[in-house]
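input
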Amino acid sequence: MTNSYYLLSILLAISLINSCKQRPEFSIQEGDLLFQDVDCGPFCESIEAVTEGVNQYNFSHIGLVMESANGDLKVMEAVSAGVVLTPIDSFLNRSLDAFNKPKVVVGRVKPQLSHLIPEAISFIHTKMNAEYDPYFDIDNDKYYCSELIHLAFKAANNNEPIFKEQPMTFKSPETNETFAIWEVYFRNLDYDIPEGQPGLNPGGMSRSSYINIVHHYGTPSKKVAL
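output
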């Protein structure tokens, strides 16, 4: 009986090891949405203060995985340089958690809407090298990170959005005063703060009922209870 027990234990251990070995690693794919917790100082902190991501994560940036002209997967993102394609490793390693893992969570459009991805990407191809939208104006021909992805899927879905526009706020939830960083920012642009105007943010998009969260590369920071 003892020998049989030990033999059974060994076989079970081998089976578990093989099962772990056979478990497929996560494979990123075209159309995936990369929600990122970027450490960019007061700007990112002010965004995270007034928005909330899935599981209360702090997200201040979003990119979309798509093929480049040579067939490599890269991340399309709208940054200060405009609409660009960034190598995936460069994107992931931009901001790391305490264990040196990327503070990035992957969202994937639900299967019933996956047919929208090719047309959304075609829309984005027409916007490559467009200027960044420093005004957060959803009606001009410039784009910030959330805006372009939202408009791409909206265009692919017969003008029906899958990400919901919300009134933007640049005010501290604690004081109801505009963050000083935004006052300076818009003053330098000679532009009125677009308080209450429609817009989008990565946190809100991560909570869309039309996407599934399929992978965590690392652990973004979370909101601290007041």
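quick obs: The chain has a mean pLDDT of 90.
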